[in-house]
Specification:
Shape: globular
Order of helices and strands: EHEEEEEEEHEEEHEHE
Number of strands: 13
Radius of gyration: 20 Å
Distance between the termini: 55 Å
Oligomer: single chain
Structural class: alpha+beta
Strand content: 35-45%
Number of domains: 2
CATH topology of the largest domain: Protein Yojf, Chain: A
Number of helices: 4
CATH architecture of the largest domain: Distorted Sandwich
């Protein structure tokens, strides 16, 4: 699992590590003192502090602070990740073309760099019905994306009912299509139709997320081409997390 690690790297050592591992199908983690700047639909900055940078093989990026489950910044999908030196410090930039967004992480002092080769062989279907999956994720939308707020379930648009209608942490509307098993191109086509329908009804940007345990390779390619996002949902809250039901009267 552990492919490589580099404790307390200098800036040139860290840059060489990133160039060797960022695009090699590995999960890369960098821990250390960093500054984080996001520019896109808004502008935000996390001041210098201790953070954990996580770059997954699919190009998604998360920056975590020392507390809580929500990242201080993230990119669910990227079109390019670049590492370079700027004024003697390593900078990692994660870019997205549509919508135009950039997360820029400057490593002020690296504590540890690791690269992991994780196997992705499991294929399974979530237990329960899609209605139960929808109810669980409506109560726990952070399992889809940190900062997501669900506005409605089964929202009727001209082409059908949207499983989850939400807004993300940056204010964009989000259409979420749910699948209990491996998602195919049919699910992507359905999601794209819902997104286009919602775009005709609301001002501002509208994103589409396909949430499922897995997705086929052709469907993944289709998602990327249409600017849609896949989120792997591999577990739902345990039954004890369910709200207590009122006893039936009859």
């Amino acid at each position: 699992m552990l492919h490589a690690h580099l404790p307390r790297p200098s800036a040139p050592e860290l840059l060489a590590f990133l160039r060797a591992h960022l695009h090699a199908g590995l999960l890369v983690q960098i821990a250390g003192e960093m500054e984080v700047v996001y520019a896109g639909r808004a502008v935000s900055m996390a001041e210098a502090g201790d953070y954990l940078l996580l770059v997954k093989p699919d190009g998604s990026v998360q920056v975590h602070g020392p507390r809580g489950v929500k990242p201080v910044n993230w990119q669910p999908r990227t079109d390019g990740i670049h590492a370079f030196l700027d004024d003697g410090r390593v900078v990692i930039e994660a870019e997205r073309r549509s919508p135009a967004e950039v997360v820029r992480v400057t490593v002020l002092e690296g504590a540890l760099a690791c690269a992991f080769r994780l196997r992705d062989e499991a294929r399974f279907m979530l237990q329960g019905s899609e209605a139960q999956m929808q109810a669980a994720l409506a109560r726990h939308p952070h399992l889809i994306e940190p900062g997501l707020t669900v506005l409605d379930r089964e929202l009727l648009v001209g082409v059908g009912g949207v499983d989850l209608y939400a807004r993300d942490a940056r204010g964009a509307y989000v259409v979420v299509e749910l699948k209990r098993g491996r998602a195919t191109h049919d699910a992507v086509h359905q999601l794209a139709r819902y997104v286009e329908a919602v775009r005709t009804q609301v001002p501002g940007p509208v994103r589409g997320i396909l949430a499922a345990p897995d997705v086929t390779a052709p469907a993944r390619t289709q998602l990327d081409r249409q600017g849609l996002t896949f989120v792997a949902v591999s577990a739902l809250p345990a039954p004890e997390d369910e709200p207590e039901r009122q006893p039936a009267l009859f």
